[in-house]
Automatic annotation (TrEMBL):
InterPro entries: 1-PFruKinase, Carboh/pur_kinase_PfkB_CS, PfkB_dom, Ribokinase-like, Tagatose/fructose_Pkinase. Its EC number is 2.7.1.56. This is 1-phosphofructokinase. The gene is pfkB. It holds the Pfam family PfkB.
């Protein structure tokens, strides 16, 4: 998986503002007092762009943003030197509210509806991506699909971009993932639940997950990474199969950890690293992100310290 052109483009069809409310003793149906609030720009592709920014490759964000609440995204792009090629649509990007009760450890999610994307906006996005293939060799298609967009969108874009010689990574779920896999992107990153749903069978043991990852790789996917949450991730490609276990770390927020994993693996792979190195760096990058709220990457020094603490286990052939 080597890109012939330097730039990386992340495509976010359903961007979000992540609003976190700290509310000790939160109780449904009662008056609750919020003691702290944070708002950060998000959406899986936006997160990946933020994590890749500042590395050795120029990063561009594409996709859709709502005109009514675009300021947080524009500030992120300026601060992280991300080229902004997102198309503006009438209305607001969705807001994802997390109510965090640290006394009990409970987290309550309230996800608002997002933009409705008209057909002409999809055509404009396709034209934008075609133009970006002139100097960008890798495209990351990630996140949910908003209203008005067909579930085949990632498959369509994968075929379109690969025909132009681009490396394509996909991180989504459900029907969009099912269609995308049939188009054979170079890299996919489902979690365990998404992989089981995709293959239509329960994955109850590590062996089940390993066999499922190999089956997906054998179907024509160059690299398969299966995230296991706090238990790390499985990595399968033509040069081997590994399980990576992260070291214990302080956790401020798990939001975006999977996107940090994608960014870390992708950056290492595009630099020509072998699968074991990709697994180590991706796992360390994701672990380092956990101490930060929002799409803020860990420092290179923190990643370097964590790389050596990642425990690696080769997967057998069973």
């Amino acid at each position: 998986m080597r890109a012939t052109k330097p730039g990386v483009v992340t495509v976010t069809l359903n961007a979000a503002i992540d609003q976190t409310l700290e509310c000790p003793g939160f109780t449904a149906g009662a008056v609750n007092r919020v003691v702290a609030e944070t708002r950060t720009p998000g959406g899986k592709g936006i997160n990946v762009a933020a994590f890749l920014a500042g590395g050795s490759r120029p990063v561009t964000a594409a996709g859709f943003l709502g005109e009514d609440n675009v300021a947080l995204f524009e500030a992120l792009f300026r601060d992280r030197d991300i080229q902004d090629r997102c198309l503006r649509l009438p209305g607001s990007s969705r807001v994802n509210i997390k109510v965090v009760d640290r006394t009990s450890g409970a987290v309550t999610d309230l996800n608002l509806p997002g933009l409705r994307v008209p057909e002409e906006a999809l055509e404009a996005l396709g034209a934008t991506l075609d133009a970006l293939t002139e100097d960008h060799g890798c495209f990351v298609l990630s996140g949910s699909v908003p209203a008005g967009v067909p579930a085949t969108i990632y498959a369509t874009l994968t075929e379109r971009l690969r025909a132009k010689g681009a490396v394509v990574a996909v991180d989504t779920s459900g029907e969009p993932l099912r269609h995308a896999v049939a188009a054979q992107p170079d890299f996919v990153k489902p979690n365990v639940h998404e992989l089981g749903e995709l293959l239509g069978r329960p994955l109850k043991t590590p062996g089940d997950v390993g066999r499922a990852a190999r089956d997906l790789h054998a179907s024509g996917i160059g690299m398969v990474v299966v995230s296991l949450g706090a238990e790390g991730a499985l990595f399968v490609s033509h040069d081997g199969a590994w399980r990576a276990l992260p070291p214990p770390v302080e956790v401020a927020s798990t939001v975006g950890a999977g996107d940090a994993l994608v960014a870390g693996v992708l950056a290492a792979r595009l630099d020509g690293s072998d699968l074991e190195t990709c697994a180590r760096r991706g796992t360390a990058f994701a672990a380092g992100k956990l101490a930060r709220v929002g799409p803020v990457p860990p420092t290179p020094e923190r990643v370097a310290a964590l790389v050596g603490a990642v425990r690696m286990h080769p997967l057998g052939n069973a």
